[in-house]
Fold this sequence. Notes:
The protein is an alpha+beta fold. It has 2 domains: 2-86, no CATH class; 103-172. It contains 5 helices and 5 strands, in the order E-E-E-E-H-E-H-H-H-H. It has helices spanning 61-65, 80-91, 107-132, 140-161, 168-172; strands at residues 2-7, 27-39, 42-53, 56-58, 76-78. It has a 3-stranded antiparallel beta sheet, with no helix packed on it. A two-stranded antiparallel ribbon has the order 4-5. It starts with a strand and ends with a helix. The structure holds zinc ion. Zinc ion binds at residues 15, 17-18, 20, 52-53, 56, 80.
Amino acid sequence: MDIWLTICRKTVPKCSYCKEPIKLGEVMIAGRLWLTSKKEGEIRKWVKNFRWHAQRKIYPDYMRTIGAVGPVDPIGEECCWLVAGLDYLSTHPQEETRGRKQLQLPKKQKDERLKILRQRARLVQKLKELMVIPLAEQSEVDTAKMIKIGSQIEELKEQISLLGGVPSSWESSG
Ligand SMILES: [Zn+2]
């Protein structure tokens, strides 16, 4: 996919990720996917275009539920392209294979290992979402969740060490 940064020159009704409009003059990320298919011996080519917010303002959840009135300070910003990409990676984990031998594991253990990689990717994603919340807004529940996720990640590390070893990419972030 081709990806580039641009300024929105015409309001986009729906961002490819959050489905909210991208307004005129806002910075956005554009993507173009080149596709081909073969149907009845005929090759068809077409492009699929994507538009994402580069900096979408995030408001507290409760503002949405009460139908915000008047100016409200956003609690953060997110890049819809980046968030969508992280989402994708969390369900399609890739293992670093450069510079080392392919693991020789029986099929069942390989599947088990892949399952653990997926679980961890999901947990890391959840942790990232919680870490976006500013400290002042964090509740005890959020803190407890973060601690729980941390220990779950540790458990997965123990499990995977018995299934071909701990991936080197895990070491730096626990
Ligand atoms: Zn968006």
